[in-house]
């Protein structure tokens, strides 16, 4: 089976490494210099420990990438998903579409943006605790798979043969978890940067779980999704590991890094939790929903309130 992976970042490359074990893989990026480097070096600075198999094909031609493919995987940062889908809408035929991007754009879910341009029933979302570096090491990995199409579910599980999937039809619940966990990870990093212990981190994660569970329910998802790999699984990983860019970004803030250091880190890394923070803030305002932890983090990051605000929030007895 041929699989097209749209996006050549670390996570896209890691997904391609799994797919390549049993399938033909073509990877696409709109950036010609990036494609030329990948073809020439068979490696990427985004995933330095991974030597790319010589038969993975790289192209800037989306039509070539998806031609004869049965499955298309979108693995670009969430802010670029809409542009990719606009290009894809005139090319896609009857392929199945698997979205590995996490986050929201404005107050819109990625699945809703995709369906706006490509009305289809062969759509799935995958999300869960899976760093790219671990995926290429072939360690056991688990993901939540959200789709309402049994054929799409079977195809994706077959394509990613060594990944353990927990399947649900709660697409929006998975998207909420995949988006908000990056925001919560920034807060976890802030606490660690302030010097708080693992006990405080456990309090923070537990309070966050309750907030997220309530948010999923209020937005029409299944609140039990918080107990899935996309929920508590991904939250635990991103809130406790320095490999998480969002956690590391929060650590800089909590550790009183100067503005120059913070800007440099943002320029060198994709901090999807920042985009998700603003998107989720818009969503809860639009929906008139209270989300205390997110509002606290928004005040710290956007309104430049002191990090001590997060400690005060955690010790409130309510």
Record keyword descriptors for this entry.
318 residues; alpha/beta; eight-stranded mixed beta sheet; two-stranded antiparallel sheet; 15 helices
Q: Which stretches are low in confidence, meaning pLDDT under 50 for 5 or more residues running? A: none
Total helical elements: 15
Spatial sequence of strands, sheet with the most strands: 3-2-1-4-5-8-9-10
| Average pLDDT score | 93
Shape summary: globular
User: What is the rounded distance between the termini?
Assistant: 54 Å
- N-to-C series of helices and strands: EHEHEHEHEEEHEHEHEHHHHHHHH
Helix content: 40-55%
Computed Rg = 19 Å
Q: What structural class do you assign from the helix and strand content?
A: alpha/beta
Number of strands: 10
User: What is the makeup of the main sheet?
Assistant: 8 strands, mixed
Report the portion of residues in β strands.
5-15%
């Amino acid at each position: 089976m041929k699989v097209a992976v749209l996006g050549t970042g670390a996570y896209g490359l890691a997904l391609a490494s799994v797919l390549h074990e049993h399938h033909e893989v073509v990877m696409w990026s709109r950036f010609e210099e990036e494609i030329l480097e990948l073809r020439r070096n068979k490696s990427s600075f985004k995933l330095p420990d991974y030597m790319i198999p010589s038969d993975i094909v790289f192209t800037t031609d989306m039509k070539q990438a998806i031609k004869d493919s049965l499955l298309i995987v979108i693995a670009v940062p969430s802010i670029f998903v809409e542009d990719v889908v606009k290009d894809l809408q005139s090319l896609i035929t009857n392929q199945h579409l698997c979205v590995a991007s996490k986050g929201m754009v404005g107050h819109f879910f990625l699945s809703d943006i995709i369906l706006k341009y490509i009305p289809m029933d062969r759509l799935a979302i995958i999300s869960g605790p899976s760093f790219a570096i671990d995926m290429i090491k072939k360690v056991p990995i688990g993901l939540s798979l959200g789709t309402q199409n049994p054929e799409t579910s079977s195809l994706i599980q077959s394509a990613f043969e060594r990944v353990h999937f927990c399947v649900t039809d709660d697409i929006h619940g998975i998207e909420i978890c995949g988006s908000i966990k990056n925001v919560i990870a920034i807060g976890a990093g802030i606490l660690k940067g302030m010097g708080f212990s693992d006990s405080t981190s456990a309090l923070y994660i537990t309070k966050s779980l309750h907030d997220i569970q309530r948010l999923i329910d209020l937005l029409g998802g299944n609140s039990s999704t918080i107990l899935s790999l996309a929920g508590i699984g991904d939250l635990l990983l991103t809130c406790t590991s320095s490999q998480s860019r969002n956690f590391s970004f929060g650590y800089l803030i909590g550790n009183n890094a100067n503005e120059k250091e913070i800007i440099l880190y943002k320029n060198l890394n994709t901090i999807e939790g920042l985009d998700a923070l603003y998107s989720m803030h818009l969503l809860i305002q639009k929906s008139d929903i209270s989300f205390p932890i997110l509002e606290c983090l928004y005040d710290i990051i956007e309104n430049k309130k002191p990090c001590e605000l997060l400690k005060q929030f955690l010790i409130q007895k309510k």
